[in-house]
Specification:
Layout lengths: L15 H25 L3 H5 L5 H19 L3 H28 L5 H18 L1 H8 L2
């Protein structure tokens, strides 16, 4: 077997952007599903805690769908838009979480799950294989 370096066209591109696209869709499912669960369960607010509201979800949904399509297709614009959208959402959620914790409001499974998904998504986007798969054509 030869240990020669493969040309750039023969190298396989990473699937990490597609995993990030799926994670963006999982985030939407968690946000919308959490809103429905909090409203339908008798003690939903106590069990699930605070999370993104309907206005935030309505704003984030089209952006996350656009990001998911761009990442799935491994486009440069998809990576850039995703980094901007999810980094902004991560900072926004961190500020929201600080207010919730400082005010003594209830935090629950949904509060921490949404934050964890955002952190994992931003880290996944910033990994070099994800960036390279989207920016190299």
């Amino acid at each position: 077997m030869s240990s020669a370096i493969l040309p750039a066209s023969a190298r396989r591109r990473s699937n990490l952007p597609r995993w990030a696209a799926l994670l963006a869709l999982v985030l939407l499912v968690v946000i919308w599903g959490g809103m429905l669960l909090r409203e339908s369960l008798p003690n939903g607010q106590t069990l699930l805690g605070q999370a993104v509201g309907s206005t935030g979800a309505a704003f984030l949904t089209p952006l996350a769908l656009i990001c998911a399509v761009g990442l799935w297709l491994r486009t440069a614009w998809g990576w850039w838009v995703s980094v901007i959208v999810f980094a902004w959402q991560g900072v926004s959620y961190a500020l929201f979480l600080m207010v919730v914790l400082a005010s003594g409001d209830v935090t629950g499974i949904l509060t921490w799950l949404t934050g964890a998904i955002l952190v994992v998504l931003v880290v996944l986007l910033l990994l070099p294989p994800t960036r390279n798969a989207c920016l190299q054509r």
